[in-house]
Write a structure and sequence with these properties.
Elements: H1 3-30, H2 36-62, H3 68-91, H4 101-124, H5 134-151, H6 156-188
Helix pairs in contact: 1-2, 1-3, 3-4, 3-5, 4-6, 5-6
Length: 196
């Protein structure tokens, strides 16, 4: 296993640390005496995961250690961390701002649409080429910013502004990928009459 893949695996292991720290922080908050140690652990795990993401990519490029396993694991680790953060920060009781449920549902819905779309195209069309679009990158960046702002306990007004921008970008990226998927199916001829 390459060094970048080991770092990516470490990032997966940070997810339960992050989630556990938030849950313990919530528990302490409910008792009326929030334990900031748990809050610090949550932030530390999230930051460490974000930094390690930059490191494994840099090492893979500089040391020519890119691999098929890494190409699968790296985005999965990123998505797992982000989804965990979005879900947890939408329902836990704490002195932090809450992410609105509609935002989390929109993000999860778009991701589910992408996964099902790619799986369907792979089954029926066989050849699938996925090209990232800038709207997808912007939406992911804004989602990360929203999570970071909540963890840093920034004002709810600021969080709300980023959430609305992130929601708009997420919706736009879903539309872009949906249109691309429809065009790919049409170009393959799979949707033509008589095709089985």
């Amino acid at each position: 296993m390459t060094v970048p893949n080991i770092i990516t695996l470490f990032r997966f292991l940070l997810i339960p640390v992050f989630a556990g720290a938030l849950l313990y922080y919530q528990q302490s908050f409910r008792t009326g005496a929030p334990d900031n140690t748990y809050w610090a652990w949550a932030i530390g795990a999230f930051v460490l995961a974000a930094v390690s993401d930059a490191f494994d990519g840099a090492i893979a490029r500089l040391c020519n250690q890119k691999s098929r396993l890494g190409a699968i694991m790296d985005p999965l680790a990123d998505k797992a961390l982000l989804v965990t953060a979005l879900v947890m920060l939408s329902w836990i009781d704490s002195d932090m701002a809450r992410l609105p449920i509609w935002f989390v549902v929109l993000v999860l819905g778009r991701d589910l649409l992408l996964v099902l779309g790619v799986a369907g195209m792979h089954v029926f069309i066989r050849h699938v080429t996925i090209q990232p679009h800038w709207t997808g990158k912007v939406s992911t960046a804004l989602q990360m910013v929203a999570v970071s702002m909540v963890l840093l306990k920034l004002p709810e007004d600021w969080v709300a502004a980023v959430v609305w921008a992130g929601g708009a970008a997420t919706l736009a990226s879903a539309g872009v990928y949906l249109v691309r998927g429809i065009k790919a199916v049409s170009a393959s001829g799979f949707d033509q009459p008589g095709r089985r």
